[in-house]
Design a protein that fits this description.
By secondary structure, this protein is α/β, with parallel strands linked by helices. The protein has ten helices and 14 strands. It binds phosphoenolpyruvate and manganese (II) ion. Manganese (II) ion (MN) binds next to loops.
């Protein structure tokens, strides 16, 4: 971190300010130019807030040279992180470092037939995880809120029947007691900056799928991951799921550039959700291919056996047949990228 001191500041004041900074655990390099003094902070500056420094009466400008996230930062962990999820038979399903994770299933669990039927079809087509929401964050309190505990039981039945590991959303920390057999805990876009929840998840030992908030920057997403990692849980999968922009042709705007950006800045795996990003079933296969071509480590795709009658997000859900055709193409893309599904 570099601090430019206001011109004309007395040496005595700079000395006192330097002592204050050193008390916060950093070394201070002093450099006096003809018109301006610059202080360079060396050491762990994560606990020093730029805003509070900027507010100091001696400070003209503060520039952070290193990112405020450490654990999620590739600079401190150059190799790609791979998340290994144990499945039946002593095998693992991996995401990251050359392995693609393909999560597929309905937006929400509706009935036993629906979730088990979809689970069997997507497994047949090559999905490596089953998705499905039991607790749903809906914009309207009058919309279907998910089946809750019953939905969780049905999801677990589908897991038992197919052997597919499951990913499902947790909306509040008290729900965690129901997540014992859940393989990946999803933190939805609306909760990406629920810092109390993130801190609690830092203490749990399950992989977390962290979705990007729809008005959040790349750095904010990485800081959200840092919250979980600072608590001791480093099994995080980042998910780009579209952000809000001025155009409403698509439900959100898929920020494909987030994939190389996140992978450059962080070692964590990055997956893409083309369903919530576009809101349009017909566009999902195209954007799924684009995401893999841009270097994503996997996808989370909404698949429904009867999209027209889905209780949630039917217009963006592809059919099991469409998912099957997509998987055929994705295997070719994966081979081109030298990745395995
Ligand atoms: C979902 O995956 O069904 C969901 C609600 O996603 P998001 O949090 O990205 O909107
Ligand atoms: Mn959905």
């Amino acid at each position: 971190m570099i601090i430019a001191i206001k011109p004309g500041t007395a040496q005595e004041d700079i000395k006192n300010f330097t002592a204050l900074l050193e008390r916060r655990g950093v070394k201070v390099h002093y450099s006096a130019g003809t018109s301006q003094t610059v202080l360079g902070l060396v050491g762990d500056t994560t606990g020093i807030s730029e805003e509070s420094l900027q507010a100091h009466h001696l400070v003209e400008k503060v520039v952070r040279v290193q990112e405020p996230y450490k654990r999620a930062n590739r600079a401190f962990h150059p190799l790609d992180t791979r998340i290994d999820i144990p499945v039946a038979g002593g095998q693992v399903r991996s995401i990251g470092a050359g392995s693609l994770g393909i999560m597929a299933g309905p937006c929400s669990v509706e009935t036993r037939e629906q979730i088990v039927g979809i689970a069997n079809s997507v497994k047949q087509s090559g999905a490596t995880f089953l998705r499905g929401g039991a607790f749903k964050p809906r914009s309207s309190p009058y919309s279907f809120q998910g089946l809750g505990c019953e939905g969780m039981d049905l999801l677990l039945e589908a897991k038992k029947e197919t052997g597919l590991p499951i990913v499902t959303e947790l909306m509040a920390i008290h729900q965690l007691e129901l997540f014992d057999e859940v393989d990946i805990v999803q933190v939805g876009a609306r909760n990406m900056q629920n810092f109390t929840l993130l801190k609690e998840l830092g203490r749990c030992h399950k992989p977390i799928l962290l979705k990007r908030g729809y008005a959040c920057t790349i750095t904010e997403l990485l800081m959200a991951a840092e919250y979980i990692m600072a608590g001791g849980n480093d099994q995080i999968i980042l998910c780009e799921r579209g952000i809000r922009s001025f155009d409403n042709f698509t439900r959100n705007t898929l920020d494909l550039s987030a994939i190389p950006a996140l992978k450059r800045k962080s070692h964590l795996p990055v997956i893409v959700d083309p369903s919530h990003a576009t809101g349009l079933a017909w566009m999902v296969p195209t954007m799924a291919k684009a995401a893999i071509a841009a270097g994503a480590d996997g996808l989370i795709i909404e698949v429904h056996n009867n999209p027209e009658e889905a209780l949630c997000d039917g217009e963006q859900s592809i059919t099991p047949d469409a998912f099957d055709s997509l998987m055929t193409v994705l295997r070719k893309y994966a081979a081109l990228e030298e990745k395995i599904i």
